[in-house]
């Protein structure tokens, strides 16, 4: 049955399209064959074409195979955005291995948990990470490759060896896991999400079919600014999209505005995937000029909600559109995106991708579909939905029911099929019996001219059950009082939604991709309240 959102698909997009079956290595193989001399990756002073990239991948794959790497083995990649990450990623895919994504900033305990939980047998990272592995007693159990070593344990040493035999490519794209992507751990113990080759490539294909025609993106002509960490599902997905589309990918290891502005002026990127904190930082930096971003064709935002006020200010100041979307680790990552330039709804995450179904169900049982405009839990179905959680059958069964993924996010759908995320089930504030969605209060506070960032959450209240608290980061050289913020909210919100207390900080706790760690603020508040008892 035709869905109401399909009336808003960009012209030329087939909502029942057929997605080719490609392994992740075949993405690179195809592009190198068709566009061998197209510039593939820029990493500082290193620049490689697609044929050079494939040759490096094949040499490393041959060396790994000769060293005993076999299909299905897990290899931890603990690297920032760099050429070495990309080479290692596709070499592992060439052998039918599983990439285990690891944040290079992880401390000992975090790294040990992922290595042991995933049963990783190979480790690829920078040599200073070896000390962490040594402290955990893991050096002897792992085959370690250092990307910054010229010796036998070095990645470039292996690439430089005489080419070795590589086994025939044998991958079941529907069933074989390509990536073990651990959840961010923002709501509890991190889980390994099993993403197959079909999951990851389906999402690449959906995204490009949904955007390329409308935004005039041309194969082998685009330049992507690679700011999102590649060890994160959002960054990994965008990298695969760049390779499939024969774009030039600029690897940027960390977000520093001076560096970003220099890259914008030198390379004129056309595709800019980012997270809300990056957009907020750029918006508030006076050095960024309108001409610096005039080359942008497609700016996407993901990982967390982007306040409407930030979208509007960004577009007014710099004259470009930001296309919000929605997804999660379990969906490779995207399920929704605001379509082309004619029917955008700021504040909405847009409509489902082709071949993706979505609906809103009651948050208690997850069995009753909610009427239009009423909040409930968002559930999704599509080819990008994960195979399951690694070694966690019970949690897989809880998340995947009859083909539907229960996201844990609260949302509403309007009469045109556009979806709006209003919060997490676990973040919902219930004060005196009223449901309060933090994002609604945050959007009001973002409209205040002095506010740079804000996080709203519930704290225990003996009378109301919970009270609303807002923690605010002010813009540079701006000032504001708690009373001023309370009056601002009182003029714009129903009384029970107005925060009872405010806090001011220089920064908010965040994940590596800039998602605010609401649970950390809640825990800090709980400890403070207990100390005062």
TrEMBL record:
GO molecular function: ligase activity
Domain AMP-binding enzyme C-terminal: 440-515
Pfam families, sorted: AMP-binding (PF00501), AMP-binding_C (PF13193)
InterPro entries listed in its UniProt record: AMP-bd_C (IPR025110), AMP-bd_C_sf (IPR045851), AMP-binding_CS (IPR020845), AMP-dep_synth/lig_dom (IPR000873), ANL_N_sf (IPR042099), ATP-dep_AMP-bd_enzyme (IPR050237)
Keyword Ligase: yes
Keyword vocabulary terms for this entry: Ligase
Name under which the protein is recorded: Long-chain fatty acid--CoA ligase
Keyword Ligase among UniProt keywords: yes
Domain AMP-dependent synthetase/ligase: 28-390
UniProt-listed PROSITE patterns: AMP_BINDING
């Amino acid at each position: 049955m035709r869905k109401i959102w399909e009336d808003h698909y960009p012209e030329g997009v087939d909502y029942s399209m057929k997605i080719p079956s490609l392994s992740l290595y075949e993405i690179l193989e195809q592009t190198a064959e068709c566009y061998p001399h197209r510039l593939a990756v820029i990493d500082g002073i290193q620049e490689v074409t697609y044929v050079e990239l494939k040759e490096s991948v094949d040499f490393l794959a041959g060396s790994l195979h000769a060293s005993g790497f076999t299909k299905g083995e897990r290899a931890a990649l603990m690297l920032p955005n760099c050429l070495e990450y990309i080479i290692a990623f596709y070499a592992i895919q060439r052998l039918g291995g599983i990439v285990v994504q690891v944040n290079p900033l992880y401390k000992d305990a975090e790294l040990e948990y992922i290595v042991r939980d995933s049963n990783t047998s190979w480790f690829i990272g920078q040599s200073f990470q070896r000390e962490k592995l040594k402290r955990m007693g893991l050096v002897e159990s792992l085959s370690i490759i250092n990307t910054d070593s010229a010796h036998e344990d070095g990645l470039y040493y292996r690439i430089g060896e005489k080419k070795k035999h590589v086994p025939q490519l044998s991958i079941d794209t529907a069933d074989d896991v390509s990536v073990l992507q651990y959840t961010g751990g923002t709501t509890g113990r991190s889980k390994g999400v099993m993403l197959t080759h079909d999951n990851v490539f389906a999402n690449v294909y959906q995204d490009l079919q949904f955007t390329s025609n409308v935004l005039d993106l041309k194969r082998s002509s685009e330049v992507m600014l690679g700011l999102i960490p590649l060890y994160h599902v959002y960054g990994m997905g965008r990298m695969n999209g760049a390779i499939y589309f024969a774009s030039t990918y600029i690897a940027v290891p960390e977000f520093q505005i001076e560096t970003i502005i220099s890259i914008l002026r030198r390379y004129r990127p056309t595709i800019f995937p980012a997270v809300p904190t990056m957009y907020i930082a750029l918006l508030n930096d006076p050095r960024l000029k309108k001409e610096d971003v005039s080359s942008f064709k497609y700016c996407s935002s993901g990982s967390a909600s982007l306040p409407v006020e930030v979208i509007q200010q960004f577009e007014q100041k710099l004259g470009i559109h930001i296309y919000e979307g929605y997804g999660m680790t379990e969906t490779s990552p995207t399920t929704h995106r605001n379509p082309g330039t004619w029917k955008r709804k700021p504040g909405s995450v847009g409509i489902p991708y082709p071949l993706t179904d979505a609906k809103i169900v009651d948050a208690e049982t997850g069995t009753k579909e909610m009427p239009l405009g009423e909040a409930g839990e968002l559930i999704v179905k599509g080819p990008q939905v994960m195979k399951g959680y690694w070694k966690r059958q019970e949690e897989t069964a809880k998340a995947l029911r009859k083909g539907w993924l229960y996201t844990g996010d609260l949302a509403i759908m309007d009469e045109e099929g556009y979806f709006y995320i209003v919060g997490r089930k676990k973040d919902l504030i219930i004060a005196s019996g009223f449901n309060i969605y933090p994002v609604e209060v945050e959007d009001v506070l973002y409209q205040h001219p002095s506010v740079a960032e804000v996080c709203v959450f519930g704290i225990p209240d003996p009378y109301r059950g919970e009270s609303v608290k807002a923690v605010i980061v002010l813009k540079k050289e701006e000032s504001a009082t708690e009373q001023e913020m309370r009056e601002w909210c009182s003029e714009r919100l129903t009384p029970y939604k107005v925060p009872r207390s405010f806090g001011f900080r220089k920064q908010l706790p965040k994940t590596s991709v800039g998602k605010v760690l609401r649970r950390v603020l809640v825990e800090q508040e709980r400890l403070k309240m207990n100390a005062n008892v």
